[in-house]
Amino acid sequence: MKKTKFIGVLIFFFIYGQYDVSSKDILNTFRINSMLHGVLDNSINPNDTVSDLSLQNPDDFLNITELIKKYNYPAEEYTLLTKDGYKLKVFRIPADGPVVFLMHGLICSSDDFITPGVKAGLAFLLAQKGYDVWMGNARGNKHSRDNIYVKPSEKEFWNFSFHEMGIIDLPAMVDFVLDKTGKDKLIYVGHSQGTTIFYIMCSLLPEYNEKISVMVSLSAVAFMSHIRSPLRYIAPFNEELLAIFYSLGVYELLSETPTIQAFQNTFCNTNPRAFTFCEKIIFFLGGFNYEQTNFEHLTVVFHHFPAGSSAKQLVHFAQLILSGYFRQYDYGPKNYEKYGSIIPPSYPVGKITAPVAVFYGIGDWLSESVDVKKLTSKLPNLIELYTVENENWSHFDFVYARDIKTLILPKLLSLIEKYV
Ligand SMILES: *[C@@H]1O[C@H](CO)[C@@H](O)[C@H](O)[C@H]1NC(C)=O
Ligand SMILES: *[C@@H]1O[C@H](CO)[C@@H](O)[C@H](O)[C@H]1NC(C)=O
Ligand SMILES: *[C@@H]1O[C@H](CO)[C@@H](O)[C@H](O)[C@H]1NC(C)=O
Ligand SMILES: *[C@@H]1O[C@H](CO)[C@@H](O)[C@H](O)[C@H]1NC(C)=O
User: Fold this and answer.
1) What PANTHER family has UniProt attached to this entry (predicted)?
2) In a domain, 62, yes or no
3) pLDDT one-digit tens code per residue, 201-233
4) Is the CB of 20 under 6 A from ligand 4?
5) Is 47 in the pocket of ligand 1 (CB under 6 A)?
6) Cα–Cα distance for residue pair 92/83, rounded to 1 Å
7) Distance between Cα 397 and ligand 2 center (Å)
8) Does residue 413 lie in a domain region?
9) What one-character DSSP code corresponds to residue 379?
């Protein structure tokens, strides 16, 4: 095993370093600087001094409900219990309109739909249109880091991948929302892993298709062998990866630990710093799109991201990248005992009968067109495969971009309005 390369990968994940800086990145350094100056020159009161710019945004330290209330929307917090003891937090901006359930991606949380602000946060935009907006949180992230049987300090707590989110957390949240609202169907909008777990739920528990009026995938993540993201470099280590994480005592990744918070408070606390350090990390993972940077809310975004996940989740994604299949966790020699076959079973996506629309970004490094088409060709009720009208649209643009209101919202509304 090439230990040095492996350690490099670990360092990338833990120190957020500039591992393998791409040539495109270097070429763009000048553009970053000139853009930053452009932003400073144009959108800031000329009477402000540069030192005023380094003041923290007053929203930085507000939690999700405080942010919702600050902008004069009603906010509700709920906690539900899964059958295996996880306590999941669900947030809501209540209204009389149709129910929309928003589900976040890997190492993300419900906060993603709020932190880009009232002009770009998807939850705010949908609330402005009268929708009853609900936001879920999968087990293990900062809002759902609790279990009545095991503590997060115990290894057992982290023994889950997105598979368990798809077959346990998501059904529990969908049932909870339908129960609270008295409706029999909801509109589901997922980003990234929020789409993966939907496909898992509706393929393994097909009765849930009846509870979904329409599903919109903001970047579809299922088949992954063609991704451009540097995450593909971890794939060859998938067999050893979990064992090594565990031998280092690492069960959890990128949660709101004091180290991550110190990083956020040091490197993401002013707009220029947040752009230079933190935004570049997500560019690096999900694709570059400088023009869509939401400067006004960058520090707020990075005070809520990353929100944590299990190490096993990352390893399961690495398995999908390496195998090219969308299938259950690969336990190696234990597969036979667990599944009755030497290879893990694939998710039967042909059973997803709920109407599904897929949004695709040309600049999305985590969702490549070959992989997306492989999925959409198998979906029996695909209603639309929509390419976002921006040549650089990246993975994280689906939640954090400046122009969500013009590039995503109109299409999203036109699709979901047909199903309410
Ligand atoms: C800048 O300050 C001057 C003098 O204090 C004031 O007249 C002007 O309106 C200010 N400009 C802005 C854009 O606030
Ligand atoms: C947010 O802060 C308020 C106190 O201002 C608290 O009541 C609420 O539980 C907090 N919510 C979360 C999700 O941390
Ligand atoms: C983790 O879960 C799997 C399957 O759910 C089980 O086979 C395995 O024994 C568990 N491992 C630990 C360390 O609890
Ligand atoms: C896409 O990126 C390229 C290179 O960074 C830039 O020249 C172009 O203007 C961008 N396009 C849009 C629509 O922002």
Assistant:
1) LYSOSOMAL ACID LIPASE-RELATED
2) no
3) 999 999 999 999 999 999 999 999 999 998 888
4) no
5) yes
6) 22
7) 27
8) yes
9) -
Mean pLDDT score, 138-151: 97
Is residue 91, in this structure, part of any structural domain at all? yes
Domain membership of residue 173 as a residue range: 68-249+309-417
* Domain membership flag for residue 3: no
Q: What is the CATH number of the domain that holds 148?
A: 3.40.50.1820
On the CB side of 210, how many CA atoms lie within 13 Å of its CA?
A: 5
Give CA–CA dist 169/162, Å, rounded: 9
Based on the structure, what is the number of domains in the chain? 1
Q: Which residue has the least CA distance to atom 3 on ligand 3?
A: 159
Q: For the whole model, what pTM was predicted? A: 0.86
43 lines ligand 1 (CB under 6 A): no
User: Ligand 3: which residue has its CA nearest to atom 10?
Assistant: 159
- Does 68 sit in the ligand 2 pocket, CB within 6 Å? no
Cβ–Cβ < 8 Å for 219, 367: yes
Q: Does residue 24 have a pLDDT over 70?
A: no
Mean pLDDT value of segment 347-368:
97
Report the C-alpha gap between 165 and 200 in whole angstroms: 9
pLDDT tens, 400-418?
999 999 999 999 999 999 9
* Ligand 3, pocket residues at CB < 6 Å: 156, 159, 338
| Active site positions, annotated | 192, 364, 395
